[in-house]
Write a structure and sequence with these properties.
Radius of gyration of chain A: 20 Å
Shape of chain A: elongated
Order of helices and strands of chain A: EHEHEEEHEHEEEEHEEEEHE
Helix content of chain A: 10-25%
Number of helices of chain A: 6
Largest sheet of chain A: 7 strands, mixed
Oligomer: homotrimer
Strand order of the largest sheet of chain A: 2-1-3-5-4-6-7
Amino acid sequence: MAGGGTTYGWISLTTDYGRSDGFAAALHGVIARLSPAVRVIDVTHDVRPGDIARGAAVLAQTVPHLPPAVHVAVVDPGVGTARRAIALTTQNGVLVGPDNGLLPPAADALGGIVDAIELTNTAWHGATVSATFHGRDVFAPVAARLATGAPPNEAGDAIAADGLVRLPPPIVAAGVGYVEAEVLTVDRFGNVQLAASGEHLAALGDHVLVGGARAVRATTFADAPHGSLILFVDSAGHVAVAINGGRAVVALGVEPGDVVRVAAASP
Amino acid sequence: MAGGGTTYGWISLTTDYGRSDGFAAALHGVIARLSPAVRVIDVTHDVRPGDIARGAAVLAQTVPHLPPAVHVAVVDPGVGTARRAIALTTQNGVLVGPDNGLLPPAADALGGIVDAIELTNTAWHGATVSATFHGRDVFAPVAARLATGAPPNEAGDAIAADGLVRLPPPIVAAGVGYVEAEVLTVDRFGNVQLAASGEHLAALGDHVLVGGARAVRATTFADAPHGSLILFVDSAGHVAVAINGGRAVVALGVEPGDVVRVAAASP
Amino acid sequence: MAGGGTTYGWISLTTDYGRSDGFAAALHGVIARLSPAVRVIDVTHDVRPGDIARGAAVLAQTVPHLPPAVHVAVVDPGVGTARRAIALTTQNGVLVGPDNGLLPPAADALGGIVDAIELTNTAWHGATVSATFHGRDVFAPVAARLATGAPPNEAGDAIAADGLVRLPPPIVAAGVGYVEAEVLTVDRFGNVQLAASGEHLAALGDHVLVGGARAVRATTFADAPHGSLILFVDSAGHVAVAINGGRAVVALGVEPGDVVRVAAASP
């Protein structure tokens, strides 16, 4: 099943399927049948159902740490409609999923899109394709073939990268003594990750207000007294807010998409 | 550890152990020790504790998409009692677990039972067998041996397939202009899967009432206006009810085992 | 990447990262990049955030059932502070994680600590080490190198095993006709595991009071009437309390760390 394409030892999976049903396992099964030597890394199956922005953020922040792979991502409220199924080739792997904004941030994190293909070659899909489970019937079979070296340009028709659906860029607005930034994600610990990056903090000094509340600049959680709001640069390079021993998301009362203001304060 | 039996490259696991404890990992560990070349696919460990019908439904709907494998399933409220431990050989894999109704639907999905064995050969079990964790001490060790080619008939005594415990078949009753069908499962998206199959819908036309509420016949979720109740044939071939952008299980107020009436309506 | 050390085919992961974010997948990714032939078993990622005692208990009770491995455990509220990063070599595997009490019970379960190393060799760490994600940047890279045969003593400086941080031993106090024991864990089924072991029960007879309520001595769940409180020796060798068809943790109203009194009762 080879022929000119790059081979990949790994396929990663990022979906909103949960783990209570057999959906994620069906993807594992399809991959095991078509490309038994390929191994699978589950990024997460716990994206909130239909939350494309969340899926895109987790995928983009995780792929840099994975080996070269075919990355399958399925958060796909438009499954079965005219939305396109696509594969994006980068210098460091291939992304496979719906054309709904989910994949481009990860493509950027992998060095940018080299080629974009619409998955129109139905010979690569499952024998029957359901209207509601393209993860099993389209994306996983295509990923298995790509991982074993089938060339991406045989998966379908070349399409223009600048015609792909993209999510609106997150809001980041910096001024004198402040930065306003959108909440990108909230992690399991209740830490609130902002779209701002480390350099936005440089101008603000060590004493800051986050959403009006005093916070301490720190490098790690235990650098502040128990219960204190902490502003730090997280492991993905983003500004984030935490509470030593607590959940910042509760203290701030925000959710992804909200905008948080971080401003210089007097000592 | 071979000898006449089929070998399998894969073992699948379906349990109600959850993933917060180390129980599922202990199964992985036992398999890794006894059959290190075999790879494991987790179907799910999130079956509601003791919910045999749910485990049976997820297993039966997932195994057709897995590679040839030994499928271990453990939803086992009678662990340690006189309920039998069994292995069911089919044309497309072996099922291992308790004789409580959990396995036969999957055996049917794999082409039917060829041989049934009670796992009485204690030489295949763990060195010590606890009274409460037969997944670790009986089912996983037996599965590992079967996967490496040990013949099923050496796992214990042949038993009659028609003497196996079977769950009552789900209710499906079709009449003129309606079908009444039991709820089989509710998935992560809140979609309600009924025991009825696609052909039951053919006679009802495009306008239907589901539990008295108007619904639209559709092939995928986005075929109906946001908030509309949708009746479709799901990726497992069952009639299912969804809401575009919502959770049908909440709108219908049902749970597995309840009976839902789908009836033809005027346009 | 070899050199004198033992090689391991497996790395296990025990963390409080959850599975909603990409953190656990990043560990898989780092391991796949550095030691692609090594396979990973997820013990659990669902330790309650920061709950070192819970992580220690799950890890210690699971490792005896895993193949020889490098076991990575990360429940690490002090990440980025002066708490040490360590590797503990035992006769049956190596443990890697923070020096905060998480690892020693598992080391004991694997036969005891042979050597303890502080992970001061930064050449083994990630190219950049974040202040908040040592799982990805320190522990996983070190584990990957150890699994491929790099000798533990090259990971850093030898330290004294008796200087390691240890959790206080759980309370177990036996007297005439009773034993008082701390709750170690509560599992997915609501079963309450006590620090007492089977021999503590021998003196109490078949009729007991658990926290003042009548319970039945049994070997498995179905040995008692539906709804009855059961006292049994669980699959890890600990005294545990269950309810046939219910959740003992609710009936007892306890949580890990609480002390439960088990006393002989009249028939």
